[in-house]
Amino acid sequence: MMTFHLATLSTFGILVVCDFNNPRYYDFDVGPLLENDRILISYTKCFLDKGPCTPDAKEFKRDIPEVLRTSCGKCTDKQKEIIRQVIGAVMIRHPKSWMQLLDKYDPEKKYFDDFNKFIAEE
């Protein structure tokens, strides 16, 4: 198991996630985000207000504060899996962007520890 300095987001959560009751996201294909760094960077820029947002990224961005605050407490198992994958990819491949996301969405690091534990869970 990797020890992540993985805290908050992503999800980004990532991050990532979505309107928790929106069935549109139950089948969200995370593959392109993980396989194509250009897409991952695009989502990250959207979340940081440094670039345009796709419709999916815009919806995800809207839910970042809730996901972070509750460590994805309202997420389905599938959504939790997606957030962990995407946040992990951002943390490993783009650590500076990850730190910027943390600074933006959790500037006081209130949720850092709990979110970090959530990300590290299997």
Overview of the structural elements:
By secondary structure, this protein is an all-alpha fold. It is 57% helix and 0% strand. It contains six helices and no strands. It has helices spanning 31-35, 37-47, 55-70, 77-93, 95-105, 112-120. The chain is globular, with a radius of gyration of 12 Å. The chain starts with 30 loop residues before the first helix and ends with a helix. Residues 1-20 have low confidence and may be disordered.
Please render the helix and strand layout as text.
Layout: H1 31-35, H2 37-47, H3 55-70, H4 77-93, H5 95-105, H6 112-120
Helix pairs in contact: 4-5
- Portion in beta strands: under 5%
How many angstroms separate the termini?
9 Å
Order of helices and strands: HHHHHH
In the predicted model, the low-confidence regions spanning at least 5 consecutive residues are 1-20
Largest sheet: none
Output the radius of gyration: 12 Å
Structural classification: mainly alpha
Protein name: Ejaculatory bulb-specific protein 3-like
Organism: Papilio xuthus
Pfam families: OS-D
InterPro entries: A10/PebIII, OS_D_A10/PebIII_sf
List keywords for this structure.
single chain, 122 residues, mainly alpha, disordered N terminus
Could you provide a short overview of the structure?
This protein has 122 residues and is mainly alpha-helical. The protein has helices at 31-35, 37-47, 55-70, 77-93, 95-105, 112-120.
